[in-house]
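Task 17 of the worksheet. Students: predict the tertiary structure of the chain below and write it out as structure tokens. Keep your answer in the requested format; marks are given for formatting as well as content.
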Amino acid sequence: MPERKPVILKLSGELFEEESEHISFNRYDAVAGQILNIVRETKAKMALVVGGGNVFRGREANSRVDHNEADSMGMMATIINGIGLREALVRNGAEDTRLMSAVDIPGFAEPYIRLKGKNHLKNNRIIILVGGLGKPSFSTDSAVAQYADELGCGIIFKASTVDGVYDSDPHKNEKASKYSDVTFRKAMIEDLGVMDKTAFAMCERSGIPIFVFDIKNLAHLPKAIAGDYSFGTLIHK
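Model answer:
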């Protein structure tokens, strides 16, 4: 049997906050526990890309602020979450978890090097990728699409605030219709919005599918790893 390809999971920064706390160590702990259960159950080689929206979103900065500087602040926010999640994973038993950053911060994380990342996955280490792509104007959606291609991942799992892709915002339109699957081209043309268009275009080029699901169903991820996409939406070429 050929070796199964690694998977990559995109986690939004909002996952690490609670009502009274932008940064919640209880949430880092809870997410780490779920990830470790998934890895133990599936034996999947896993990379994680974390957002920073609980700390700061560059795109929400005041229009007077230079967008490059605001995006840089957003990249630093992802590093904060990466450190918190790594600590929780290590403390819960994944002692060889590696934090890799596109931004050069050697005192806190390894520099992201493609071949080194692939080697970590080959040796069954969980890797957390932070700092986006290390450049302004690129979202963590674009980062997960790029890293998936570079690391040879078989699929991208996008943990969202809704249980899939809809034809309109289900938070605003109660009659919104959910897709069970949709092509990258359709998602781009209809501006379905669950990820940015750059990420869709990158995945269309690489042929790596995206499965969008509700973050509340993170514990069901082993089903998707086994090929059951019934609880979300599969975006494919």
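Marker's comment: The longest strand covers residues 155-160. Helices lie at 25-42, 67-91, 114-122, 140-150, 184-189, 197-206, 221-225.
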